[in-house]
Each structure stands twice: as structure tokens, then as C-alpha cells.
Amino acid sequence: MDFNTEVALVTGAGRGIGLAVAEKLGNLGAAVVLADQDLTGAEAGALAIEGAGGRATALAMDVRRAEDWQEVVAEAVRRYGPLSVLVNNAGFDRPGGVAKLDRCDFEAVLEVHLTSCLLGMQTVLPVFAQAGQGAIVNVSSVYAKIGGQGEAAYSAAKAGMVGLTKSAAREMARQGVRVNCVLPGLTNTPAIRAMMSEKIKAKLLAETPLRRMAQPGEIANVIAFLASSEASFVTGAAWEVSGGWNM
């Protein structure tokens, strides 16, 4: 996979899967813009990529704001040239079951995961269409297919991302733009380590045939493939990277 002529924007790139994706694309030669509200983490990631001989910039961004999308994409183009890869990875969680989930919490999770995904695609499409090519990878979750107990908002948002991905793939294909999504299973990220109890973690691992969590780099490998010319005939796909969780 050769990304030497590519310019990539990765959201939620300050840690976890987003950081692993940024590092992977940077190591493959892409100029990478690491966007995150956590500018400290994104800056550390950019410095690591540059230290390894790559090109990277960290920018503060609230993915819920259309204005931020416009500013970050414009800055990416100004620094490196036309954007060619977008990875919609930003997200967070407010757990709760259907019966008692607060509406504000539900809408907040949808806004960060799903609405931001739409805003991102709407912002980059003119750039991609002008070039006649581009690749978008949206980071969903295996919960999009199986649901998560006590994760009503997160599951709904991630399922919405799959539908949005498929609609965008149909609409953007004639402009040379491919749109895919990945559905990770349980992944060893800072958020999981900080928030998930050992009891819940053990239950989920017992349901995973490979009997372990994914490392962020394993998810990043699949995202990089989908963003690359090696996946030139892949669009509208929802790739599970879950260790067989939903098999």
C-alpha cells in the first residue's frame, strides 16, 4: 500500500483507534492531519509521525460543528494539497438502556458519531469530486449489527453509520469516491481500559472466538487497506474486525 501522494484527515486521532490509523497512514507515506478536541494527544501523535520521517499536523476540532469541518479541511488543503482520504473515527459514549436512556444523552451520542459523519462527507465531497477520486472510511462497531445491552445510543449511532455509509457509497460512486466502514469488536483502547469493568470485559471476551481484544493497530490495518488503491473495487462495504464476535 502506497500513500505517498495521499493527504488524509483522521478525526478522533488523539488516542486509540484514531491515533493508530494516523500513525499507520503516516508510516505508509500519507500526509496526515490529526483532528481531535484533545489537541495534546493529537500533537503527540503528529510529532511521533514526523519523528519517523513522515508528514503530520495536529488541529483542534469539534466534529459537531460544520464550521470546524470547513476550517480543518481548508487547512489540510493549504498545507498539503487536495485531501484524498477521510477517516471518520471520532466518538464517545453515554451508556444506558432503552427504557431509561435520557433523550439528551441519546442525541449527544448520535451527534458525535452520526451527524459528524454526515458533516465530514459533505465537506470533503467537493474536494474529492473535483479530483475524481477519494476514499472515506467510517468507523462503526459490531454493535451496529448485534446491539449492545445498556448501549442503546451507541448501538443506534453505529448502525446509522452503516446505513449512511451505504447511501453515500451509492451516491458518490460516479464521482470516483469510495465509501466503506469498519465494525470493530472489543478493542484495547484507553476508553475501554478506563470505563469497562473487568466483569463486562470477561463476558465480551467469552463471546469472542479469538478470546482476546483487538489492538488498535489491527483495526488500523483494515482501515488503511480500505482507504488504499488495493481496495479500488470495494465500496459500500461494512467490514467486521471483531475476532469473530458476530460470526
Automatic annotation (TrEMBL):
- Name the PROSITE patterns for this protein: ADH_SHORT (PS00061)
**Which SUPFAM superfamilies does the entry link to?**
NAD(P)-binding Rossmann-fold domains
Give the matching Pfam families. adh_short_C2 (PF13561)
Gene3D superfamilies, sorted: NAD(P)-binding Rossmann-like Domain (3.40.50.720)
User: Which SMART domains does the record cross-reference, listed alphabetically?
Assistant: PKS_KR (SM00822)
Specify the Ketoreductase domain's residue ranges.
6-189
Sections of the chain in a coiled coil: none
Instruction: Give the top-rank taxon of the lineage listed in the UniProt record for this protein.
Output: Bacteria
Q: Which biological processes are named by the entry's GO terms?
A: monocarboxylic acid metabolic process
* Family per similarity comment: Belongs to the short-chain dehydrogenases/reductases (SDR) family.
- According to UniProt, the name of this protein is Beta-ketoacyl-ACP reductase
Task: Report the source organism.
Answer: Desulfoferula mesophila
